[in-house]
């Protein structure tokens, strides 16, 4: 059919549909109801909307009247006076003269009940009896259903197992009921062809360890439990649809579907469906692939096509990670994609059953007309809408299309709230079709426009943003994280490990003044997961080589200083480009030499690249003379110059990033570097030297001088020609360096500068209203990722009493679910610690923990490598050593406190002030933390690790460092001396006047 | 006469005048001439104009062909290609094929000769025979004359004496000639009434030590020599006019005139005139006063009224010093003032003879018509124009007005160049009437407009500048320097000294936690000019009082930290206001306690005020959270918080400024302070405590704890509760503090921060093309002001060989001219050093100087006080102790170098890197200094002292400090720890989007 003709038909049918339902508003926008009023407010007041969503989100955690009242105050204080009135509707206390606490309590109660009431509108039931009753009711009204159990986040296998159990119980209940139901349309099956029992399952909740990094493990983990559900569904001849969730799980979910559908057990059972999201840019291809697969396998499939419900978070996450945005960014693009994909499915109706899930009348009309045009039999497509929403649409649909299925969530209100928030979002988003059609009565013509046309118009209206540029450079952007959703990325890591493995065991010289220098004394670096695997043998500098390197640096210094900031920055940018090209190889070295998991290793290399890109721009910024004052007759400019020779003494835990950060800052500021890597990461240190060599850095500007601290450490620090020392490491060594550097030695021309970033004893506070789904994942990650070997790692979790039991239970189960093994295998969350010394140290602290508290969990570990058990200990108070001393390993102390104030006090009870985090949904508590949680990097509602260059300038104070912020705007200042050059420009009473002079008007 | 009628007549006469001279251009704009071409270029090309003026200025110093060629290259390289062609005109080498050095030499020679030729046009002669010849010639042409001897800057009394001698010789020459001249108009006197011999004298050149600060001394110093000239003038019945120079000498000059005119010796001799400048806002009043005085004294006077020739520098200086601009800022305002004042003089023609000095035809016409309207007799007014300029005007004038006198400079070309620059400026300034009338042929109507009308129009066109504001505060402005031209200011200092003297001898307690604390141990502070005068007796803290103060600070800390930056800044602004009100008293304390001269003391208090005003604004700036990155879904902010308790250990040499700077920075950043003043300035330290008390600073935030370093110094530095130490003082003590502070003591929670500003061994380089008039004054000031007791003081002057002899001769004579005595008497340039220890130390170094070099001058000193001789020693090389060690007293080492490169090398040959200065007019050498002169504060063509807050952030590196810049934009960072607070704002997949998010388009 001619597409214009079809489009006309679609538009006509849509208008008819509109007319047929005109005057009927969906309950949520019925302003007579409390919900309607609140939704109305939300649309008018963006701030209220945000606060309301957040309040709804936290509501299930507010178990006491005090807590509820306090949160209402915090969320809605300062807002328009009418807002509380709206919220209080139905409280029955307005004008009654009830005052004070009692009234507040009543209001709070009313608000809770109003919101819970609103939530319940979208849920088929909180228990099976209720659910069965309601399901029967909707079937009576002529609708089919699909039930989905609420509960999205599993932080442990025990939770995934519990989720599975819920499905089994639901199916048991349905089993009892369904036989008594007549099929819609009177036959045994609904409409003569569809199973009456229909469930939808969110796959990732069934496997708590699902992660795109571990594709195969995730597929298997999910498939195992899904198969159990499907087995039971099959027993009652039901239908199971695998829901589609976040983009990162999309390929895993598709793979699970293909495997289950084509498995021996189920390949003859057709009632297994999948969901595709039209808003994903991938979907055209995914759909085509899936149809081709079905044809090839000769397996009929069923696809529910939705628009997609995670648009905000997909976009935010992509932006935060530096990835391409996976979703269409214009709403009409998704609509157009939907119509395109619906057509493709309908064209393949012989092999693919279609579930059209949309509330958009244009979309529905398009599907109807397209199906008609393609002569698609009725039993090959049906319509689906959300339970509790868009009532007029569903009624209208039922009239016209007959086959309408309601998507009916079931289960506890707590996870229900998360669902409610997403639904509310959908309803009030500016672009929402529903809002437009019912709330704003936008013109029908416009609503019926072909979305492809809308897209073109909107594209034409969008103007490219003008981006600030620094000296012709694009604005700094963080290097993207590895996107493990891509198979090629996962493979690249494996390949790189293999390639690096082939290069193990070499001898590495020092590099001084561009020359390789070999020494008799050498050190072996080994794979901590398998100490018999030698990574490399590294020559070790003695004081003699330090002298050589100082001479090389002195020789290189004048020419290097004389280059312009732009020229020096150019070398860094070139080095960044080299590292970018070699990112997988550089990561693989870390996996093998220090036991970094792929994501951790890649993040480290990315951070190294970030440091170079950022400091290059920063140096260009500082390189511009800054005019001081505006006095006519003088030109006074503040400029910066290098301090002199820099000693960079680096740790092994961020073996490339921190080494590169300190070195590149020194270098770009004009200071030649003597770089001493940590022993266990000396080969990675050599790769840094190689990067700079390949970037063409002049000889002597960067000197690679690994060596034993006991042999050359003090000598380097005390050397009269060393002007600055950049050190990252332990507090003890830091103190030693600061002390040694403070003594002026004969021949020394300058006061030495020490930039020291030391340890931490970082706490995460769990408030009683914390979102535990997020908090537990983040605590586990902060405490145990890379074996807790980060100065930023969480080593204390401080939990307020009301939430303590629940948190601990979930935390320990979460920890128990983490697999431990070699970093090169993505199955494992945690690997070995760096060496035997580290292993012994951790074991020592585990003994201390045992003596000071109660060990809740101490994991088994593989044999062979330098593994240390993941350990959680409770009953810890600030007096304990385990609460005060940095362990630098996977040991987490749990501290129970009465309330948030005590949490803050305990958090601040150590000598360290590095990182910290708070999980709370109390605006006041977050504000208090902002003011009082005395750490260099404070994170609110996220973990304590993972600082990014520029976004999270990193570093602490007190005994955690000198108040330096790596990757921040003040960092380079530490590597330079400021100079003021003031020229008197007046000669013989005459001065040229500058534009920015403070001259007469 | 009706003013409109008069205005019409003026305009008509002006137009007639124009018509009469039409077609005649003044020689300088005659484009056929080389000068005309160059002037034409200057008008079209602002950059060329600046370079040309600067080149003309330096030309007399370019004594070798190489030097000349090099400067031509440096000044005119990179300019339009036509420029060199213009400059080379007349060189006769264009197109001759002569290349290389020879050609360059010829070009240089041609340029020099062209410029010298241009200069000579404005000079009546370089020697008396030439002058006499030319004077005769102009008289023959019908013009009278007044001769003025070029040479404006005297840096020593011997130079002033020489200038006097030149006048005497000129008068001798005139004496021989004038008898043979017939009076103009045929009678014995010119025009029947005017002396034939007429000279103009610039008064300040006659007394090298003239300074508004010492009004009476300046008047007497000038009067003495002027009287000698007048005596000789009187002998030959000549006329002497006292010229008017810069504004700062105006009142001195007027006073000299009145004294001479009314003196016993000359009150009956009427031929003594004065000059008034119409561009000064004071002139209406000055003229009225002068006329009233003449009437009261019954002494006929003569006034030459000029527009004024120092407009640029008067404006720049006022702006630089924070004073009201003394001149009219619209050109027409000066013109209008001129007409107004001319009228007033003409109205008083019975008592006042009028010299109308202007080239402006409107002005001339106005004077003519006004004189006519007032029936002023011819002999009561005459016209004056500059020799060598405005030839058509002078010819026209002669025709119409008959009585025209040419102002004829006489003397060496070297000072002549300065004169030439001023004349060139006048001719090419945009507003120049001459340029308009001859060079641009602007409409006559407009040129004849009544300037009062022009003023109104231009005022209406000027729009007020929008000034950047910080949190409602006006942009930072430096506190104005004391304006000693004002009698009230001079008196205020004297009164304040008397008032402070009445308060001497009190006992001063410590102030801890807002309470006075007295101790048994006390210290006496004395007047260094008179040690028997006790300034005060100061209680001395022991470790016990330090503990007390630490407790008070700890108690005050939380509340102080909790205040907003704006609130803390508010206290500083209040304190600044208090100091501003008490500025004379605070200065007087310094004069008596540490021997600071009034200007030095006032500058110190002003700097203290500046620190408070600046740091207040800086803290508000730093107080604003700085968003990091732009990631949607998170709000990441960099903020700063106080480090903790600060120990401020201050020096006595800038007793209020540095104490206040370090303390106010600490305080405004949120750190409570323990302030230990230096012993010799403890009472001044107490005044700081009083300022803060009066400003209402909460108790314990600022604790005044004077004490003996030997008793409590280390204790304070090592105290585990002290988080930061701000120290300004000697290198030795600095090293000790840095060492002690680096050791971590039990109970210590933080790594101590030391902000140290230490010593200097500052050099000023004198290049062979330096403007010695300026260089010598600045070197003397930098080396000996406040007795050289500044870390920024010049203690080495490095002179390149070609200029060495000339420089040294002038320098030593300049030094010899400086008077030494108590600071409270403004007669004295230099006073006593601070105490007997300082005196002994200086004497020790003078002995060392004597043993290492040749003492060129060592001044006598008064008896009684702690005086140390002002000493200049030559023959010093970098090996000498006197070239390496900081003396902190009035001892200047002179180092002779071969060339500029060696000067730079020697300048950089000490461990210190604090201040330095270069006097050079070579753009390349200035650039080299900018790059290589390794000091924290480098000054080009000005002295090495006198850094101002904001305009000149102050501080050095190497052994001069830690690279901290007091009064600069990075300073406060040192007093704070940075914190990053990053909130994950995404909840349930929904994040509020901020305006500056990196969101989709």
TrEMBL record, chains A, B:
What GO molecular function terms would the record report?
Answer: DNA-binding transcription factor activity; L-glutamate gamma-semialdehyde dehydrogenase activity; proline dehydrogenase activity
Proline utilization A N-terminal domain location:
7-122
Which residues are in the Proline dehydrogenase domain? Answer: 131-436
Q: What Pfam family does this protein match (any one)?
A: Aldedh
Q: Which residues form the active site?
A: 757, 791
A Gene Ontology cellular component where this protein is annotated is: cytoplasmic side of plasma membrane
| Aldehyde dehydrogenase domain boundaries | 521-979
Show the InterPro entries listed in the entry: Ald_DH/histidinol_DH, Ald_DH_C, Ald_DH_CS_CYS, Ald_DH_CS_GLU, Ald_DH_N, Aldehyde_DH_dom, Bifunct_PutA, FAD-linked_oxidoreductase-like
- Reaction catalyzed: L-glutamate 5-semialdehyde + NAD(+) + H2O = L-glutamate + NADH + 2 H(+)
> What EC number(s) is this enzyme filed under?
1.2.1.88
Q: Which UniProt keywords apply?
A: NAD, Oxidoreductase
Name the pathway it acts in: Amino-acid degradation; L-proline degradation into L-glutamate; L-glutamate from L-proline: step 2/2
Name a single GO biological process.
Answer: L-proline catabolic process to L-glutamate
Q: State the family it belongs to.
A: Belongs to the aldehyde dehydrogenase family. RocA subfamily.
Name assigned to this protein: L-glutamate gamma-semialdehyde dehydrogenase
What organism does the record attribute this protein to?
Desulfomicrobium baculatum (strain DSM 4028 / VKM B-1378 / X) (Desulfovibrio baculatus)
């Amino acid at each position: 059919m001619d597409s214009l003709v079809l489009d006309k038909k679609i538009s006509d049918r849509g208008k008819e549909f509109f007319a047929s339902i005109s005057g009927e508003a969906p309950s949520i926008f019925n302003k007579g109801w409390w919900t309607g009023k609140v939704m109305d407010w939300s649309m008018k007041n963006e701030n209220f909307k945000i606060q309301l969503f957040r309040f709804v989100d936290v509501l299930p955690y507010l178990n006491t009247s005090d807590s509820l009242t306090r949160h209402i105050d915090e969320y809605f204080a300062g807002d328009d006076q009418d807002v509380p009135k709206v919220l209080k509707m139905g409280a029955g206390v307005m004008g009654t003269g009830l005052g004070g606490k009692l009234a507040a309590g009543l209001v709070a109660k009313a608000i809770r009940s109003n919101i819970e009431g609103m939530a319940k509108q979208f849920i088929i039931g909180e228990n099976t009896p209720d659910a069965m009753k309601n399901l029967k009711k909707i079937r009576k009204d002529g609708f089919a259903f699909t039930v989905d159990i609420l509960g999205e986040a599993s932080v442990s296998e025990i939770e995934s197992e519990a989720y599975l159990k819920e499905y089994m119980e639901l199916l048991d209940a349905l089993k009892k009921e369904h036989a008594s139901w007549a099929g819609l349309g009177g036959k045994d099956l609904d409409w003569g062809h569809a199973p009456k029992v229909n469930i939808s399952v969110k796959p990732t909740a069934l496997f708590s360890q699902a992660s795109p990094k571990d594709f195969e493990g995730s597929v298997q983990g999910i498939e195992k439990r899904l198969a159990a559900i499907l087995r039971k569904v099959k027993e009652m001849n039901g239908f199971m649809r695998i829901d589609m969730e976040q983009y990162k799980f999309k390929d895993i979910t598709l793979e699970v579907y293909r495997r289950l559908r084509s498995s021996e057990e189920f390949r003859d059972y057709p009632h297994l469906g999948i969901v595709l999201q039209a808003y994903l840019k991938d979907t055209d291809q995914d759909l085509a692939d899936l149809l081709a697969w079905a044809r090839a396998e000769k397996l009929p499939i069923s696809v529910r096509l939705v628009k997609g419900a995670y648009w905000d978070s997909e976009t935010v996450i992509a932006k935060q990670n530096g990835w391409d945005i996976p979703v269409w960014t214009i709403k009409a693009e998704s609509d157009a994609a939907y119509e395109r994909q619906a057509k493709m499915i309908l064209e393949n109706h012989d092999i693919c059953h279609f579930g059209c899930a949309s509330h958009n009348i244009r979309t529905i009309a398009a599907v109807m007309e397209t199906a008609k045009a393609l002569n698609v039999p009725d039993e090959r497509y049906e319509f689906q809408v959300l339970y509790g929403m868009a009532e007029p649409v569903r009624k209208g649909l039922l009239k016209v299309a007959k086959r309408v299925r309601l998507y009916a969530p079931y289960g506890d209100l707590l996870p229900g709230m998360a669902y409610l928030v997403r639904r509310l979002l959908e309803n009030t988003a500016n672009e929402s079709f529903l809002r437009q059609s019912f709330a704003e009565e936008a013109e029908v013509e416009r609503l019926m426009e072909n979305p492809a046309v809308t897209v073109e118009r909107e594209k034409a209206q969008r103007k490219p943003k003008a981006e600030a540029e620094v000296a012709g450079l694009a604005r700094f952007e963080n290097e993207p994280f590895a996107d493990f959703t891509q198979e090629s990325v996962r493979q690249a890591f494996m390949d790189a490990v293999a390639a690096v493995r082939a290069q193990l065991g070499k001898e590495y010289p020092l590099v001084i003044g561009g020359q390789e220098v070999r020494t008799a004394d050498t050190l072996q670096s080994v794979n901590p997961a398998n100490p018999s695997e030698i990574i490399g043998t590294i020559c070790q500098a003695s004081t003699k080589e330090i002298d050589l390197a100082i001479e090389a640096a002195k020789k290189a210094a004048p020419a290097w200083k004389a280059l312009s900031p732009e020229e020096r920055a150019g070398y860094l940018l070139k080095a960044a480009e080299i590292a970018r090209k070699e990112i997988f190889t550089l990561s693989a070295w870390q996996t093998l030499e220090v036991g970094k998991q792929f994501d951790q290793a890649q993040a480290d290399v990315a951070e190294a690249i970030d440091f170079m890109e950022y400091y290059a721009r920063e140096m260009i910024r500082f390189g511009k003379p800054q005019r001081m004052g505006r006095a006519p007759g003088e030109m006074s400019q503040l400029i910066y110059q290098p301090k002199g020779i820099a000693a960079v003494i680096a740790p092994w835990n961020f073996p490339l990033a921190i080494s590169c950060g300190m070195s590149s800052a020194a270098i770009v500021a004009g200071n030649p570097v003597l770089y001493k890597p940590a022993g266990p990461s000396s080969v990675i240190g050599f790769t840094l030297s190689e990067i700079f060599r390949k970037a063409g850095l002049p000889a002597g500007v960067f000197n690679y001088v690994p060596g034993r601290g006991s042999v050359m450490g003090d000598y380097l620090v005390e050397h009269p020609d060393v002007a600055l020392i950049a050190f990252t490491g332990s507090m003890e060594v830091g103190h030693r360096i600061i002390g040694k550097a403070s003594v002026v030695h004969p021949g020394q021309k300058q006061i030495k500068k020490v930039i020291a970033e030391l340890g931490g004893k970082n706490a995460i506070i769990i408030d009683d209203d914390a979102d535990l789904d997020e908090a537990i994942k983040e605590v586990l990650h902060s405490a145990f990722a890379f074996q807790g070997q980060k100065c930023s790692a969480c080593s204390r979790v401080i939990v307020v009493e009301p939430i303590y039991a629940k948190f601990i239970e979930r935390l320990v189960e979460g920890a128990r679910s983490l697999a431990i093994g070699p970093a090169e295998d993505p199955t494992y969350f945690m690997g070995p610690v760096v060496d035997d010394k580290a292993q012994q140290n951790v074991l020592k602290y585990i003994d201390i923990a045992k003596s000071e508290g109660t060990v809740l969990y101490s994991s088994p570990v593989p044999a062979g490598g330098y593994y240390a058990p993941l350990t959680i200990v409770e009953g810890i108070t600030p007096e304990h050593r385990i609460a005060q001393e940095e362990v630098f390993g996977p040991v987490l102390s749990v501290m129970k406190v009465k309330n948030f104030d005590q949490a803050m006090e305990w958090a601040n009870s150590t000598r360290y002030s590095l990182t910290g985090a708070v999980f709370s949904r109390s605006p006041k508590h977050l504000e208090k933390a902002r003011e009082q949680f005395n750490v260099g990097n404070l994170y609110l509602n996220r973990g304590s690790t993972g600082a990014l260059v520029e976004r999270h300038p990193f570093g602490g104070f007190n005994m955690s460092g000198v108040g330096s912020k790596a990757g921040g705007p003040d960092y380079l200042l530490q590597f330079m001396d400021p100079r003021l050059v003031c020229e008197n420009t007046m000669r013989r009473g005459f001065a040229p006047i500058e534009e920015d002079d403070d001259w007469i008007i």
